[in-house]
Amino acid sequence: MPVSDINTSWEKIRRNVKEAEILIGQKKYNLSMVKSRQALEGIVLSLCDKAAVVEPDLASSIDALYSGRWISKTSCEHYHKIRMLGNKAVHEGSDDAYEANQAYHLISQEAYTYSHEYNNSRKSRPAPSQAQPQPRRRSSSGGNKSRRRRQQGGIAFTSYDVARLVFLSLVLVLIIVLIAVFKPKDKETEPPETTPPVTVEETSTVPETSEIAPETMAPTTAAPVYKTIDNLNVRSQPSTDGNKLATLPAGTVVEFVRVYENDSDWTVIIYNDQEAYVASRYLTSD
Question: Alpha-carbon distance 233 to 214, whole Å?
Answer without folding.
Answer: 44
